[in-house]
Specification:
Length: 720
């Protein structure tokens, strides 16, 4: 399968922007009192009883669990057209940005993203909690006798009200900090009035997302307030804490707060830092995907199927047949050998070192389950051992160990899962016991003839009802295995050259490889090497394979896969690393009227994505996730704008046509740091006066809707 690329508008996905979500209890200490009222039946003294308990809610403060951070944008070390983009961080826990406070406004997040130029970027340093408290100040912690002395030097300010520390904290708690020049901090930090607009929640369904058990994805987003400079200057972004820092935040124009008087430096906690460069390069999601599958020098044509690349033209069928004839005749030449090797590469095989059972070594062919073309081969099950699935070509003297490796791997994976192995063994034992009783029943019926018909008939019916059915955990585990869940990556891609950086490789799932894999796993508990796996189990596994993916079903009619063939793709690209929630869909026809069911969609590594589809894909579309849009501005420094979208009315989210549909984005003196609150007011006024929106409330949800940039989708088409 070759791939043609075409950028199109994405399919409609519903995204809901939510202003904020506070936790039931924010971090801090609480007191609860329970009281029992007067006993009117038999009054006693005292006639009321109460008890008071104090408790604390502890959360992240000096460090964040890395699992809480879903992604950053722009991606770390990205280079491209990023000059108008506002950096942001996505969080897996939707309440995290509001679990502490920065200002009295409950909608203001305590986290912020600060952006520095290369020459301004501070170096993170590992310190402790006492390094945030003025030198010589005694430190106490709530609910603890632990004390310490602050070490923050004079001239450096940090978090007001941090002393006493919260419950469970100590002066020696480790943290990462940055020291920022006070004047620079005032110039680029958000104002207190800006903060409520710089965090929101994006809610979207997970129909075409990576495999997940959740119906809805709702990451929290914290936006930066400054855009990077163009011209190849590296920008450095830092996720920092602004907890209780309202007295130190600048005004809307970036003028220093009175609380910074006499201070030269501001010390901030930082949890994540990354860098990127805004240039005219191609590091956008669209450009990265349009750049995959570049043709290496000397290679003929684009390579989009999973095979080992080689230099030179691909051999024709006639050349392959002639080489085979020469091989059979014993007159093979070096050219014939090259043709046969290249033909094997084209079929998805790679030569691997093979250590034989009796100590010898050779080189054998191996192909994983992801074949570059449809495979008609079959395996006869049950397979007694790996050697029984090894194929030998006497004309070349080479083994094909593909199915032998699959069987052995299945056995090892089955033994590794104690729950699966135990359930399978017990079920097989029950089947054998049931078979013995059925044989006994048949013998009774033979010997007794028609006598005791009522007793034997009832016994036969009872036996039918008690026949062991395949355990649901066994069916589920094998169905997941059939979708390659748990299969090591080197079995899927045995040579890195098959999936180089910035490549997308299409494949057909080799059903014979999967059959050998399942047979190996289900060989646990066999009484004899030739004991077959019941057809009932195989049928259930095949049906369950289509239901393994936990995502909600799409609201569209899916293509009926009559052949049972499974196709898919592997994508290795910086687009996967930078957009970890990027999604994909596939269609059986070029008009995209017959969508295929997604059987599996998962990231196998930082920059590798795997998708399996129920049917033969004619078109594959990879698009940015609806819940991970990025915000930014249009135009050039000093005259930024944003194209507005309808908020209320018949088409919420509809983008107005420029220039009438544009609103000014106000900045500070550096022409890059946004006056966020003033811009929000400007946008609201424009929507009301120019488009009659009649908005009375403009929050971070509306601000995000108006600042968000559209997503793109890149198609890969069958045959070019």
């Amino acid at each position: 399968m070759t791939a043609a690329r075409r950028t199109v508008a994405p399919e409609h996905r519903l995204v809901t922007f939510i202003q904020y979500d506070q936790p039931a209890l924010k971090d801090g200490e609480y007191e609860i009192t329970a009281a029992q009222g007067t006993n009117q039946v038999a009054p006693k003294t005292p006639d009321t009883f109460s008890v008071t308990r104090r408790f604390a809610v502890a959360g992240e403060r000096f460090s964040l669990d890395p699992s809480e951070l879903a992604a950053v944008f722009p991606p770390d070390l990205a280079v491209g057209e990023l000059d108008g983009d506002l950096p942001h961080v996505l969080f897996n826990r939707r309440t995290l940005p509001w679990e502490r406070t920065a200002t009295p406004d409950p909608s203001a997040p305590w986290l912020a993203v600060l952006l520095f130029d290369e020459a301004q970027a501070p170096a993170p340093h590992k310190r402790t909690a006492k390094d945030l408290i003025a030198a010589g100040t005694p430190i106490t912690a709530a609910g603890s006798t632990v004390t310490g002395i602050g070490t923050l030097p004079a001239g450096i300010v940090s978090y007001p009200s941090i002393n006493p520390l919260d419950y469970g904290e100590t002066p020696d708690d480790a943290c990462m900090t940055i020291d920022v020049d006070a004047a620079l901090f005032s110039a680029i930090a958000p104002a207190a009035a800006d903060l409520p607009y710089l965090a929101h929640i994006r809610e979207t369904d997970t129909v075409d997302a990576h495999d997940t058990t959740t119906e809805v994805s709702s990451p929290a987003v914290v936006l930066g307030n400054r855009v990077p400079a163009r011209g190849g200057t590296r920008a450095h972004a830092y996720l920092v804490s602004l907890e209780n820092m309202a007295p130190l935040l600048p005004d809307a124009q970036g003028n220093p707060a009175p609380g910074l008087a006499g201070a030269s430096t501001v010390r901030l906690l930082t949890y994540r830092w990354w860098s990127f460069t805004a240039t005219d390069g191609d590091a956008t999601f669209q450009a990265l995907l349009e750049g995959v599958n570049a043709v290496p020098p000397g290679q003929a044509g684009p390579l989009s199927s999973l095979q080992l690349p080689y230099l030179g033209a691909r051999p024709t069928p006639g050349q392959v047949q002639q080489a085979m004839n020469d091989l059979q005749a014993g007159s093979v030449t070096a050219a014939d050998a090259a043709i046969l090797a290249h033909n094997a590469f084209g079929l998805g095989y790679v030569p691997l070192a093979h250590r034989l059972r009796h100590g010898g070594e050779t080189v054998s062919w191996y192909r994983g389950p992801l074949a570059p073309l449809p495979v008609s081969a079959t395996v006869q099950t049950p397979i007694s051992c790996p050697d029984a699935a090894t194929r030998y070509d006497p004309s070349t003297g080479m083994f094909d160990i593909s199915y032998a490796a699959a069987w052995q791997l299945g056995l090892l994976l089955g033994l590794q899962s104690r729950s699966f192995g135990t359930a399978l063994y017990n079920w097989r034992r029950g089947l054998r016991a049931h078979a013995v009783v059925r044989t006994e029943q048949a013998r009774y019926e033979q010997l007794l003839g028609g006598a005791f018909e009522s007793v034997l008939g009832a016994r036969a019916a009872r036996l039918a009802d008690l026949e062991p059915v395949p355990p649901a955990p066994v069916v589920r585990w094998l169905a997941r295995l059939a979708l390659l869940d748990g299969v090591p990556f080197n079995y899927l891609v045995p040579d890195e050259g098959m999936l180089p950086p910035e490549s997308l490789r299409m494949f057909h799932l080799d059903r014979a490889w999967i059959d050998a894999l399942i047979d190996g796993a289900s060989s646990i508990g066999r009484a004899t090497a030739g004991e077959p796996l019941p057809e009932a189990l195989l049928g259930l596994v095949d049906a369950e394979r289509r239901e393994v993916r936990p995502n909600p079903a799409p609201a569209v009619a899916l293509h009926e896969n009559a052949t049972g063939e499974v196709t898919g793709f592997l994508l290795r690209s910086a687009a996967v690393a930078g957009w970890p929630n990027a999604a994909a869909s596939a269609y059986a026809d070029s008009e995209r009227l017959q969508p295929l069911k997604v059987l599996r969609s998962v990231r196998l590594g930082t920059d590798v994505m795997l998708c399996l589809f129920d049917g033969v894909a004619d078109v594959v579309a990879v698009h940015e996730p609806a819940g991970q849009l990025h915000c930014g501005v249009e135009g050039v420094s000093g005259s930024f704008t944003t194209t507005l979208r309808e908020v209320v009315g018949t088409a919420p989210g509809h983008q107005y046509d420029p220039p009438q549909g544009e609103a000014a984005v106000l900045t500070r003196a550096d022409a890059r740091t946004l006056q966020v609150a003033a811009t929000a007011t400007s946008i609201e006024d424009t929507l009301n006066t120019r488009f009659g929106q009649k908005l009375t409330l403009f929050t971070s949800a509306e601000f995000a809707l108006e600042m968000v940039k559209g997503v793109v989708e890149v198609e890969f088409r069958q045959g070019g």
